[in-house]
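Most newcomers find our protein records easier to grasp once they have seen one. To make this concrete, we reproduce a full record directly below:

…
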Amino acid sequence: MTRFVNCYSENLKGNRTKRCLNLRVFNFFVFLLVFASGFAYLIGVSDLTVKSFALKDLKQERATLMEKKMAYEQEIDALQSYYVLNARVQSLNMVAINEIEYIKVPDSVVAKK
């Protein structure tokens, strides 16, 4: 049996092998792209998880510091209150001022330009 080969069937055979090779290369690159995207996604999720834990710790520390600040402000207010300061003045045994006298300097004593 003789097989006839014409130009058209020869071109189809040649294009078919080239196309298969190109599809294999294309499929390899698609697989590589999907794999790289999945790996980048996993790294991103891992990074977000670590940052969320760090953010949670910082929020807890902030809340603790705010409570300490409020406690310190209340302590300052208590120490600066009128009744506490008045009690301290009484404990110093100071004398109350009745009359205030100012020094009067004559004009001739002061230096002039």
About this structure: The two ends are 135 Å apart (CA to CA). The chain has one domain: 7-91. Residues 7-91 form one domain.
